[in-house]
Amino acid sequence: MQSNRFKEWGLILKLFGGIVLGAGVGLVADENAMAVVSSIKYTLGQFIFFMVPLVIIGFIAPAITRLRHNANRMLGAAISIAYLSAVGAATMAYFAGLWIIPHMSVPTSIEALRHVPEAVFKLDIPPLMSVMSALVTAIVLGIAVLSTKAKQFEALLGEFESIMLLVVKGMVIPVLPFFVAATFAGLAYEGTLTEQLPVFLKVVVLAIIGHVIWLAVLYGIGGALSRKNPWQVLRHYGPAYLTAVGTMSSAATLPVALECAGKSPVLRRDTVDFAIPLGATIHLAGSVLTETFFVMVISLMLYGALPSMGTMALFILLFGIFAIGAPGVPGGTVMASMGLVVGVLGFDATGVALLLAVFALQDSFGTATNVTGDGAIALMLEGLFPDSDSASTQVDKV
């Protein structure tokens, strides 16, 4: 147990070291040095995102076969919880915005950023499929194997899970600190950490406070449904939270999130392997909360008024659906919502550009909230499906 805690803190220190080192490099590097850093980030990102669809298939499909008769019901429950979480978070942000935003001194412009040089070397490693395609493939495979009682294929999926577990622990997690360092070097070089952040600090801080409140709500509900101590899940999420801060991607954080949730003594392995990869794909409550708050600020800033309650209600209800299909990559939520921002809220090109710029400032923390909230979803599923097949307990914890 003590050895596991040491490894957990070791990863945290490596990730934090990557953030500090990357920010330091970005502040002093010249254009040539940043071109090299961009190459490192590009190559590592290509490898990480290539592995993500395989990890999703390798963990979700075998988890479904272990869930047996609860598989279809658990899938429906998980999707419903993810949608309600996104809509609930956005609704909370809306009412908080009605109370807070009119009293804020909203900035009217942003400083121009320095352009990060293009990578001098690009190693393209395209994923075999998209994240959503991998999710659908995993679900179809798992349910089909259960329906046909294909024991040999079920065993094959179990072996593939073991292979992907080895890849995650031995290949993906070790390169994450370097990817984090390269990411923060780019942020520091372009000026996000030194110019934009102070300007919008109040807005970002308010969003982070909202993240903390919503995580408390999610874990409170998870604890009530499962009758288990939510701290026994949340306390293991430090490495995953910090990884998400550094990568700004739920997908890139998935290997660490699986490892963190797998250490919880109150979560079954089958629940972890099912809920965490699924949540990384469909649960984006932190990002939805933030964007809801930000579109209200920008609407007041550029157009002189907050959106009407009816407009925001339509935006929130549709945004919850769009968030489920958004890619778990940096900026995935805001890009998926562009049609709503323009069509429902009526933003012009200036409003869209400002939303993209401001959203990037907190993307790290919104993503970290998404990832950490997945542990609460797993806890809720533990309570809703207490009789799920526990054959997976024979599998070692990550």
From TrEMBL:
<feature type="transmembrane region" description="Helical">
    <location>
        <begin position="12"/>
        <end position="29"/>
    </location>
</feature>
<keyword id="KW-0472">Membrane</keyword>
<feature type="transmembrane region" description="Helical">
    <location>
        <begin position="278"/>
        <end position="303"/>
    </location>
</feature>
<dbReference type="InterPro" id="IPR036458">
    <property type="entry name" value="Na:dicarbo_symporter_sf"/>
</dbReference>
<protein>
    <submittedName>
        <fullName>Dicarboxylate/amino acid:cation symporter</fullName>
    </submittedName>
</protein>
<feature type="transmembrane region" description="Helical">
    <location>
        <begin position="199"/>
        <end position="225"/>
    </location>
</feature>
<dbReference type="Pfam" id="PF00375">
    <property type="entry name" value="SDF"/>
</dbReference>
<keyword id="KW-0813">Transport</keyword>
<feature type="transmembrane region" description="Helical">
    <location>
        <begin position="125"/>
        <end position="146"/>
    </location>
</feature>
<feature type="transmembrane region" description="Helical">
    <location>
        <begin position="77"/>
        <end position="101"/>
    </location>
</feature>
<feature type="transmembrane region" description="Helical">
    <location>
        <begin position="166"/>
        <end position="187"/>
    </location>
</feature>
<dbReference type="InterPro" id="IPR001991">
    <property type="entry name" value="Na-dicarboxylate_symporter"/>
</dbReference>
<feature type="transmembrane region" description="Helical">
    <location>
        <begin position="237"/>
        <end position="258"/>
    </location>
</feature>
<feature type="transmembrane region" description="Helical">
    <location>
        <begin position="44"/>
        <end position="65"/>
    </location>
</feature>
<feature type="transmembrane region" description="Helical">
    <location>
        <begin position="310"/>
        <end position="329"/>
    </location>
</feature>
<keyword id="KW-0812">Transmembrane</keyword>
<feature type="transmembrane region" description="Helical">
    <location>
        <begin position="335"/>
        <end position="361"/>
    </location>
</feature>
<keyword id="KW-1133">Transmembrane helix</keyword>
